[in-house]
Amino acid sequence: MEVQLAPLRAWDDFFPGSDRFARPDFKDISKWNNRVVSNLLYYQTNYLIVAAAVVSIVGFLSPLNMLIGGTVVVLVFMGFVWVSHNKDILRRMKKQYPTMFVVVIMVSSYFLIYYLGDVMVFMFGITLPLLLMFVHASLRLRNIKNKLENKMEGIGLKKTPMGIILDALEQQEDSINKLADYISKVKE
Question: 139 and 21 in contact (C-beta within 8 Å)?
Fold first, then answer.
């Protein structure tokens, strides 16, 4: 299936007044995780634009260090995903504790970048956009359009870049993945 970029959501939908934001239920981690995953899928193009703006500013100020930092994070992420697919215990940990998995990737990247050079580029150019996305996705309440778009992504009707990343982190629902596999077999 061809990868499609999700549409840009209206900025007044992306960041409206405080009535569309609420503190997540920290006692129900699965519900909070579902909210984050849904918002990451729904607002992914908006997040991409915000991240690109931050990365551009930091990259303009320190281009070589930004390139090194981005390369290190991508390589560490790919390494952790590869290892977690080959080690069953790491695969279960990644699925149960996705935030911990991302934190381990970021801390590992931090130490590699610290060894290679400029940590501030890492903090502002890579970590800040990720933190902004996570905070927004955690606080933003979902709406009907959000839920519908996510179901379409989940059952395989659409494939987007964020969906691919979330699949690598194994954050798509199992039942939806089974349905998507069934639909793809029927199509063949």
Answer: yes
Domain ranges of the chain: 29-143
Q: Which two tokens stand for residue 92?
A: 């279960």
Helix (H) or strand (E) holding 67: helix 63-86
Tokens of 38: 């849904």
pLDDT digits (tens, 9 = 90+) for 23-69: 887 787 777 777 887 788 888 888 889 988 988 888 888 888 888 88
Measured distance CA(93)–CA(144) in Å, rounded: 31
Reported as a single tens digit per residue, the pLDDT across 119-173 is: 777 777 777 888 888 888 888 877 666 666 666 655 554 577 777 777 766 665 4
- B/e letters for 81-109, b = 16+ CB within 10 Å, e = fewer, are beebeeeeebeeebeeebeebbebbbebb
Identify the three-state secondary structure at position 43: coil
**Chain-centre distance of CA 95, in angstroms?**
14
Of the candidates 78, 55, 63, the one whose C-alpha atom is nearest the C-alpha of residue 132 is: 55
- Residue 134's Cβ-count burial label (10 Å; 0-12, 13-18, 19+) is middle
Give 150's Cβ-side CA count (13 Å radius). 21
121 near 64, Cβ under 8 Å?
Answer: no
pTM of the model: 0.67
